Protein backbone atom coordinates (compact mmCIF):
# COMPACT_ATOMS: atom_id res chain seq x y z
CA UNK A 1 0.00 0.00 0.00
CA UNK A 2 2.15 2.84 -1.34
CA UNK A 3 1.09 6.47 -0.84
CA UNK A 4 2.63 9.41 -2.71
CA UNK A 5 2.62 12.25 -0.20
CA UNK A 6 3.04 15.91 -1.15
CA UNK A 7 5.80 17.11 1.13
CA UNK A 8 7.21 20.52 2.00
CA UNK A 9 9.45 19.48 4.89
CA UNK A 10 7.25 21.44 7.31
CA UNK A 11 5.63 20.22 10.51
CA UNK A 12 2.21 19.48 9.02
CA UNK A 13 3.34 17.43 6.05
CA UNK A 14 5.88 15.63 8.27
CA UNK A 15 3.19 14.75 10.81
CA UNK A 16 0.85 13.55 8.07
CA UNK A 17 3.63 11.33 6.66
CA UNK A 18 4.20 9.80 10.09
CA UNK A 19 0.49 9.08 10.51
CA UNK A 20 0.44 7.31 7.13
CA UNK A 21 3.25 5.00 8.23
CA UNK A 22 1.36 4.30 11.47
CA UNK A 23 -1.64 3.21 9.39
CA UNK A 24 0.58 0.68 7.61
CA UNK A 25 1.24 2.59 4.41
CA UNK A 26 4.55 2.74 2.61
CA UNK A 27 5.17 6.45 2.08
CA UNK A 28 7.05 8.16 -0.73
CA UNK A 29 7.47 11.89 -0.16
CA UNK A 30 7.16 14.11 -3.21
CA UNK A 31 8.11 17.80 -3.33
CA UNK A 32 6.90 20.01 -6.15
CA UNK A 33 9.30 22.32 -7.94
CA UNK A 34 8.80 24.72 -10.84
CA UNK A 35 12.50 24.59 -11.63
CA UNK A 36 13.29 28.19 -10.66
CA UNK A 37 14.99 27.43 -7.37
CA UNK A 38 16.37 24.33 -5.71
CA UNK A 39 14.60 24.96 -2.40
CA UNK A 40 13.04 21.49 -2.74
CA UNK A 41 16.38 20.36 -1.30
CA UNK A 42 15.27 21.52 2.16
CA UNK A 43 12.40 19.05 2.00
CA UNK A 44 14.82 16.39 0.77
CA UNK A 45 17.12 17.02 3.74
CA UNK A 46 14.27 16.74 6.24
CA UNK A 47 12.95 13.64 4.49
CA UNK A 48 16.38 12.04 4.88
CA UNK A 49 16.58 12.98 8.57
CA UNK A 50 13.19 11.34 9.09
CA UNK A 51 14.11 8.28 7.05
CA UNK A 52 11.66 8.65 4.18
CA UNK A 53 12.16 8.17 0.45
CA UNK A 54 11.95 11.48 -1.38
CA UNK A 55 11.33 12.56 -4.97
CA UNK A 56 10.92 15.86 -6.81
CA UNK A 57 7.99 16.43 -9.14
CA UNK A 58 8.71 19.19 -11.65
CA UNK A 59 5.72 21.20 -12.84
CA UNK A 60 5.78 23.63 -15.80
CA UNK A 61 6.88 27.18 -15.07
CA UNK A 62 3.64 28.37 -16.75
CA UNK A 63 1.65 27.14 -13.75
CA UNK A 64 3.72 29.29 -11.42
CA UNK A 65 3.34 32.27 -13.77
CA UNK A 66 -0.42 31.83 -13.72
CA UNK A 67 -0.33 31.69 -9.90
CA UNK A 68 1.69 34.92 -9.85
CA UNK A 69 -0.98 36.59 -12.02
CA UNK A 70 -3.65 35.47 -9.56
CA UNK A 71 -1.66 36.76 -6.56
CA UNK A 72 -1.05 40.12 -8.26
CA UNK A 73 -4.73 40.43 -9.24
CA UNK A 74 -5.84 39.64 -5.67
CA UNK A 75 -3.00 41.46 -3.84
CA UNK A 76 -3.15 38.37 -1.67
CA UNK A 77 -1.60 34.92 -2.00
CA UNK A 78 -4.48 32.63 -0.94
CA UNK A 79 -6.06 31.89 -4.32
CA UNK A 80 -2.64 31.49 -5.90
CA UNK A 81 -1.56 28.95 -3.26
CA UNK A 82 -4.85 27.09 -3.68
CA UNK A 83 -4.35 27.04 -7.47
CA UNK A 84 -0.81 25.65 -7.11
CA UNK A 85 -1.88 22.95 -4.69
CA UNK A 86 -4.69 21.77 -6.95
CA UNK A 87 -2.32 21.57 -9.92
CA UNK A 88 0.26 19.72 -7.77
CA UNK A 89 -2.32 17.14 -6.65
CA UNK A 90 -3.50 16.64 -10.23
CA UNK A 91 0.03 16.24 -11.57
CA UNK A 92 0.87 13.70 -8.88
CA UNK A 93 -2.42 11.82 -9.23
CA UNK A 94 -1.99 11.61 -13.01
CA UNK A 95 1.26 9.61 -12.82
CA UNK A 96 0.54 6.03 -13.91
CA UNK A 97 2.15 4.40 -10.87
CA UNK A 98 0.22 6.52 -8.35
CA UNK A 99 -2.81 4.94 -6.64
CA UNK A 100 -2.97 7.03 -3.48
CA UNK A 101 -2.11 10.70 -2.99
CA UNK A 102 -1.85 12.49 0.30
CA UNK A 103 -0.92 15.82 1.85
CA UNK A 104 -0.67 17.66 5.16
CA UNK A 105 -3.72 19.91 4.78
CA UNK A 106 -5.56 20.57 8.03
CA UNK A 107 -9.07 21.18 9.25
CA UNK A 108 -8.23 24.73 10.30
CA UNK A 109 -6.42 25.73 7.08
CA UNK A 110 -8.23 28.05 4.75
CA UNK A 111 -5.78 27.34 1.93
CA UNK A 112 -4.77 25.10 0.48
CA UNK A 113 -7.84 22.97 1.08
CA UNK A 114 -10.02 20.97 -1.31
CA UNK A 115 -13.75 20.99 -0.56
CA UNK A 116 -15.77 17.79 -0.88
CA UNK A 117 -16.76 18.19 -4.57
CA UNK A 118 -13.15 18.95 -5.56
CA UNK A 119 -11.91 16.04 -3.45
CA UNK A 120 -14.27 13.61 -5.15
CA UNK A 121 -13.49 15.07 -8.56
CA UNK A 122 -9.76 14.50 -8.00
CA UNK A 123 -10.37 10.91 -6.95
CA UNK A 124 -12.74 10.19 -9.84
CA UNK A 125 -10.77 11.86 -12.65
CA UNK A 126 -7.51 10.14 -11.74
CA UNK A 127 -8.82 6.97 -10.11
CA UNK A 128 -6.86 7.55 -6.91
CA UNK A 129 -7.63 7.67 -3.21
CA UNK A 130 -6.90 11.08 -1.70
CA UNK A 131 -5.88 10.76 1.95
CA UNK A 132 -5.57 13.70 4.36
CA UNK A 133 -4.44 12.40 7.74
CA UNK A 134 -4.70 15.84 9.43
CA UNK A 135 -8.15 16.82 8.17
CA UNK A 136 -9.92 15.59 11.29
CA UNK A 137 -7.41 17.11 13.72
CA UNK A 138 -7.58 20.56 15.29
CA UNK A 139 -4.64 22.76 16.17
CA UNK A 140 -4.41 21.41 19.75
CA UNK A 141 -4.10 17.83 18.58
CA UNK A 142 -1.62 18.71 15.84
CA UNK A 143 0.46 20.66 18.34
CA UNK A 144 0.55 17.88 20.92
CA UNK A 145 1.54 15.27 18.33
CA UNK A 146 4.12 17.52 16.67
CA UNK A 147 5.71 18.40 20.02
CA UNK A 148 5.92 14.75 20.96
CA UNK A 149 7.43 13.67 17.66
CA UNK A 150 9.73 16.25 16.16
CA UNK A 151 12.75 18.34 16.97
CA UNK A 152 11.72 21.69 15.53
CA UNK A 153 13.93 24.71 15.03
CA UNK A 154 12.14 28.07 15.26
CA UNK A 155 13.89 31.13 13.93
CA UNK A 156 13.08 34.78 13.54
CA UNK A 157 13.91 35.21 9.92
CA UNK A 158 12.85 36.34 6.50
CA UNK A 159 15.19 33.75 5.03
CA UNK A 160 12.98 30.92 3.86
CA UNK A 161 14.75 27.59 4.05
CA UNK A 162 11.54 25.93 3.04
CA UNK A 163 10.21 23.91 0.17
CA UNK A 164 6.62 25.14 0.01
CA UNK A 165 5.01 26.88 -2.96
CA UNK A 166 5.44 30.28 -1.37
CA UNK A 167 9.19 30.44 -1.94
CA UNK A 168 9.13 30.07 -5.74
CA UNK A 169 5.99 32.22 -5.92
CA UNK A 170 7.81 35.03 -4.11
CA UNK A 171 10.76 34.53 -6.44
CA UNK A 172 8.74 34.85 -9.65
CA UNK A 173 6.99 37.93 -8.23
CA UNK A 174 10.39 39.54 -7.67
CA UNK A 175 11.38 38.56 -11.23
CA UNK A 176 8.32 40.48 -12.38
CA UNK A 177 9.37 43.54 -10.39
CA UNK A 178 6.77 43.00 -7.67
CA UNK A 179 7.76 43.19 -4.00
CA UNK A 180 6.34 40.01 -2.37
CA UNK A 181 5.81 41.99 0.85
CA UNK A 182 2.97 43.85 -0.91
CA UNK A 183 1.19 40.50 -1.36
CA UNK A 184 2.27 38.18 1.44
CA UNK A 185 1.60 38.96 5.10
CA UNK A 186 4.85 39.51 6.95
CA UNK A 187 5.97 36.56 9.05
CA UNK A 188 8.46 36.82 11.86
CA UNK A 189 8.90 33.24 12.86
CA UNK A 190 9.31 30.09 10.91
CA UNK A 191 9.88 26.53 11.98
CA UNK A 192 11.76 23.68 10.43
CA UNK A 193 11.63 19.97 11.31
CA UNK A 194 15.16 18.82 12.23
CA UNK A 195 14.50 15.17 13.16
CA UNK A 196 12.64 12.75 15.43
CA UNK A 197 12.52 13.52 19.13
CA UNK A 198 12.73 9.88 20.09
CA UNK A 199 14.01 7.25 17.72
CA UNK A 200 11.50 4.69 18.95
CA UNK A 201 8.53 6.95 18.35
CA UNK A 202 9.08 6.56 14.66
CA UNK A 203 8.35 2.81 14.95
CA UNK A 204 7.24 2.54 11.36
CA UNK A 205 4.93 -0.20 10.14
CA UNK B 1 -3.06 11.31 26.39
CA UNK B 2 -6.50 9.83 26.99
CA UNK B 3 -9.24 10.14 24.35
CA UNK B 4 -12.93 9.44 25.02
CA UNK B 5 -14.20 7.95 21.77
CA UNK B 6 -17.91 7.68 20.88
CA UNK B 7 -18.34 4.07 19.91
CA UNK B 8 -21.12 2.08 18.26
CA UNK B 9 -19.22 -1.17 17.70
CA UNK B 10 -19.42 -0.63 13.93
CA UNK B 11 -16.60 -0.66 11.40
CA UNK B 12 -16.10 3.09 11.28
CA UNK B 13 -15.89 3.76 14.98
CA UNK B 14 -13.71 0.66 15.42
CA UNK B 15 -11.31 1.84 12.70
CA UNK B 16 -11.16 5.32 14.22
CA UNK B 17 -10.36 3.82 17.64
CA UNK B 18 -7.52 1.79 16.13
CA UNK B 19 -6.08 4.87 14.43
CA UNK B 20 -6.12 6.75 17.76
CA UNK B 21 -4.06 3.98 19.38
CA UNK B 22 -1.62 4.11 16.46
CA UNK B 23 -1.16 7.84 17.12
CA UNK B 24 -0.17 7.03 20.70
CA UNK B 25 -3.45 7.84 22.44
CA UNK B 26 -4.96 5.83 25.25
CA UNK B 27 -8.53 5.18 24.12
CA UNK B 28 -11.65 4.76 26.23
CA UNK B 29 -14.69 3.73 24.19
CA UNK B 30 -18.00 5.29 25.21
CA UNK B 31 -21.40 4.16 23.95
CA UNK B 32 -24.44 6.36 24.37
CA UNK B 33 -27.68 4.93 25.69
CA UNK B 34 -31.03 6.55 26.42
CA UNK B 35 -31.91 3.76 28.80
CA UNK B 36 -34.71 2.22 26.69
CA UNK B 37 -32.76 -0.78 25.44
CA UNK B 38 -29.53 -2.48 26.37
CA UNK B 39 -28.26 -2.63 22.80
CA UNK B 40 -25.14 -0.78 24.02
CA UNK B 41 -24.04 -4.27 25.06
CA UNK B 42 -23.25 -5.12 21.43
CA UNK B 43 -20.69 -2.29 21.42
CA UNK B 44 -19.36 -3.54 24.75
CA UNK B 45 -18.90 -7.04 23.33
CA UNK B 46 -17.03 -5.76 20.30
CA UNK B 47 -14.93 -3.46 22.48
CA UNK B 48 -13.93 -6.46 24.58
CA UNK B 49 -13.04 -8.52 21.50
CA UNK B 50 -10.83 -5.67 20.31
CA UNK B 51 -9.28 -5.18 23.75
CA UNK B 52 -10.54 -1.69 24.54
CA UNK B 53 -11.96 -0.26 27.75
CA UNK B 54 -15.65 0.49 27.38
CA UNK B 55 -18.17 2.67 29.23
CA UNK B 56 -21.82 3.59 28.76
CA UNK B 57 -22.92 7.22 28.83
CA UNK B 58 -26.62 7.56 29.67
CA UNK B 59 -28.42 10.53 28.16
CA UNK B 60 -31.92 11.69 29.18
CA UNK B 61 -34.82 10.03 27.43
CA UNK B 62 -36.12 13.54 26.58
CA UNK B 63 -33.34 13.92 24.03
CA UNK B 64 -34.44 10.78 22.25
CA UNK B 65 -38.07 11.96 22.35
CA UNK B 66 -37.05 15.25 20.76
CA UNK B 67 -35.15 13.32 18.06
CA UNK B 68 -38.26 11.22 17.41
CA UNK B 69 -40.28 14.42 16.92
CA UNK B 70 -37.71 15.66 14.41
CA UNK B 71 -37.74 12.35 12.54
CA UNK B 72 -41.55 12.30 12.41
CA UNK B 73 -41.70 15.95 11.26
CA UNK B 74 -39.14 15.25 8.49
CA UNK B 75 -40.34 11.71 7.59
CA UNK B 76 -36.60 11.08 7.40
CA UNK B 77 -34.02 10.25 10.09
CA UNK B 78 -31.06 12.47 9.05
CA UNK B 79 -31.74 15.56 11.17
CA UNK B 80 -32.70 13.40 14.13
CA UNK B 81 -29.44 11.43 13.92
CA UNK B 82 -27.48 14.67 13.59
CA UNK B 83 -29.30 16.08 16.65
CA UNK B 84 -28.51 12.98 18.72
CA UNK B 85 -24.85 13.00 17.74
CA UNK B 86 -24.42 16.65 18.67
CA UNK B 87 -26.04 16.06 22.07
CA UNK B 88 -23.85 12.96 22.60
CA UNK B 89 -20.66 14.90 21.82
CA UNK B 90 -21.71 17.72 24.15
CA UNK B 91 -22.58 15.35 26.99
CA UNK B 92 -19.24 13.55 26.64
CA UNK B 93 -17.24 16.77 26.28
CA UNK B 94 -18.91 18.25 29.37
CA UNK B 95 -17.61 15.53 31.71
CA UNK B 96 -14.91 17.05 33.94
CA UNK B 97 -12.33 14.33 33.25
CA UNK B 98 -12.67 14.57 29.45
CA UNK B 99 -9.99 16.51 27.55
CA UNK B 100 -10.29 14.91 24.12
CA UNK B 101 -13.39 13.57 22.38
CA UNK B 102 -13.45 11.56 19.20
CA UNK B 103 -15.75 9.67 16.87
CA UNK B 104 -15.85 7.68 13.64
CA UNK B 105 -17.46 10.29 11.41
CA UNK B 106 -16.22 10.23 7.82
CA UNK B 107 -15.59 12.63 4.97
CA UNK B 108 -18.33 11.03 2.86
CA UNK B 109 -20.99 10.93 5.59
CA UNK B 110 -23.81 13.40 5.35
CA UNK B 111 -24.92 12.73 8.92
CA UNK B 112 -23.82 12.79 11.55
CA UNK B 113 -21.17 15.37 10.69
CA UNK B 114 -20.19 18.63 12.41
CA UNK B 115 -19.24 21.47 10.11
CA UNK B 116 -16.28 23.70 10.96
CA UNK B 117 -18.20 26.31 13.02
CA UNK B 118 -19.93 23.59 15.06
CA UNK B 119 -16.61 21.78 15.51
CA UNK B 120 -14.91 24.88 16.86
CA UNK B 121 -17.91 25.72 19.01
CA UNK B 122 -17.78 22.28 20.62
CA UNK B 123 -14.06 22.64 21.31
CA UNK B 124 -14.40 26.17 22.69
CA UNK B 125 -17.50 25.66 24.86
CA UNK B 126 -16.13 22.56 26.57
CA UNK B 127 -12.39 23.21 26.29
CA UNK B 128 -11.71 19.90 24.58
CA UNK B 129 -9.95 18.76 21.43
CA UNK B 130 -12.32 17.05 19.00
CA UNK B 131 -10.50 14.43 16.93
CA UNK B 132 -11.98 12.70 13.87
CA UNK B 133 -9.45 10.19 12.53
CA UNK B 134 -11.60 9.25 9.50
CA UNK B 135 -12.46 12.76 8.33
CA UNK B 136 -9.64 12.91 5.80
CA UNK B 137 -10.22 9.39 4.45
CA UNK B 138 -12.46 8.44 1.53
CA UNK B 139 -14.45 5.24 1.19
CA UNK B 140 -11.65 3.42 -0.70
CA UNK B 141 -9.14 4.08 2.06
CA UNK B 142 -11.59 3.18 4.82
CA UNK B 143 -12.46 -0.04 2.99
CA UNK B 144 -8.84 -1.10 2.49
CA UNK B 145 -7.97 -0.43 6.14
CA UNK B 146 -11.12 -2.10 7.47
CA UNK B 147 -10.59 -5.19 5.31
CA UNK B 148 -7.00 -5.46 6.49
CA UNK B 149 -7.87 -5.08 10.18
CA UNK B 150 -11.21 -6.58 11.09
CA UNK B 151 -13.13 -9.81 10.89
CA UNK B 152 -16.55 -8.54 9.84
CA UNK B 153 -19.77 -10.51 9.79
CA UNK B 154 -22.27 -9.40 7.15
CA UNK B 155 -25.85 -10.57 7.47
CA UNK B 156 -29.06 -10.04 5.58
CA UNK B 157 -31.28 -9.00 8.43
CA UNK B 158 -33.67 -6.50 9.89
CA UNK B 159 -32.49 -7.56 13.34
CA UNK B 160 -30.21 -4.80 14.52
CA UNK B 161 -27.54 -6.13 16.82
CA UNK B 162 -26.03 -2.70 16.89
CA UNK B 163 -25.40 0.04 19.37
CA UNK B 164 -25.96 3.10 17.22
CA UNK B 165 -28.59 5.77 17.80
CA UNK B 166 -30.86 4.29 15.17
CA UNK B 167 -31.89 1.31 17.27
CA UNK B 168 -33.34 3.24 20.20
CA UNK B 169 -34.79 5.83 17.84
CA UNK B 170 -36.66 3.09 15.97
CA UNK B 171 -37.81 1.71 19.31
CA UNK B 172 -39.26 5.00 20.57
CA UNK B 173 -40.97 5.53 17.21
CA UNK B 174 -42.65 2.14 17.60
CA UNK B 175 -43.66 3.11 21.17
CA UNK B 176 -45.37 6.16 19.62
CA UNK B 177 -47.24 3.96 17.16
CA UNK B 178 -45.07 4.95 14.20
CA UNK B 179 -43.66 2.29 11.87
CA UNK B 180 -39.92 3.03 11.56
CA UNK B 181 -40.03 1.74 7.98
CA UNK B 182 -42.01 4.87 7.04
CA UNK B 183 -39.01 6.97 8.17
CA UNK B 184 -35.85 4.91 7.75
CA UNK B 185 -34.70 3.64 4.37
CA UNK B 186 -34.86 -0.13 4.26
CA UNK B 187 -31.49 -1.84 4.68
CA UNK B 188 -30.84 -5.39 3.62
CA UNK B 189 -27.36 -5.95 4.89
CA UNK B 190 -25.63 -5.05 8.05
CA UNK B 191 -22.12 -5.68 9.24
CA UNK B 192 -20.66 -6.28 12.65
CA UNK B 193 -17.01 -6.24 13.75
CA UNK B 194 -16.16 -9.64 15.29
CA UNK B 195 -12.45 -9.16 16.07
CA UNK B 196 -8.99 -8.42 14.70
CA UNK B 197 -7.91 -10.18 11.55
CA UNK B 198 -4.33 -10.50 12.71
CA UNK B 199 -3.38 -10.19 16.34
CA UNK B 200 -0.16 -8.39 15.52
CA UNK B 201 -1.91 -5.70 13.48
CA UNK B 202 -3.40 -4.37 16.66
CA UNK B 203 0.10 -3.49 17.95
CA UNK B 204 -1.18 -0.74 20.18
CA UNK B 205 1.03 2.11 21.34
Walk me through what this model shows.
The structure is a homodimer of 205-residue chains. The mean pLDDT of chain A is 93. By secondary structure, chain A is of the alpha/beta class. The first copy, chain A, has a single domain (2-202), classed as 3-Layer(aba) Sandwich (Rossmann fold). Chain A is globular. In chain A, α3 runs antiparallel to α4 (78-93) and α3 (61-74) crosses α7. Chain A has helices spanning 11-22, 40-50, 61-74, 78-93, 116-126, 139-149, 165-175, 199-202; strands at residues 2-6, 26-33, 53-58, 100-102, 129-131, 150-156, 189-196. In chain A, the strands form two sheets. The first copy, chain A, has a five-stranded parallel beta sheet, with helices on both faces. A two-stranded antiparallel sheet of chain A has the order 6-7. The interface between A and B is medium-sized, with 27 and 27 residues.
List key phrases describing it.
DUF7411 (chains A, B), Asparagine synthetase domain-containing protein (chains A, B), homodimer, Rossmann-like_a/b/a_fold (chains A, B), two-stranded antiparallel ribbon, alpha/beta, 5-stranded parallel β-sheet, 7 strands, globular
Which structural class is indicated by helix and strand composition of chain A? alpha/beta
Average of per-residue pLDDT values of chain A: 93
Tell the overall outline of chain A. Answer: globular
Number of helices of chain A: 8
CATH superfamily of chain A: HUPs
Query: H/E series of chain A, N to C?
Result: EHEHEHHEHEHEHEH
Amino acid sequence: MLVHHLYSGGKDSSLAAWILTRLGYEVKLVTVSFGLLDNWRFAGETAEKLGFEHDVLYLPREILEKAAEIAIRDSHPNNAIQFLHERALEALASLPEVERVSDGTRRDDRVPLLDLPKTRSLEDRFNVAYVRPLLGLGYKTIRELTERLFIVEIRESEELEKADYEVELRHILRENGIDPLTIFPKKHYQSRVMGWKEKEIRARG
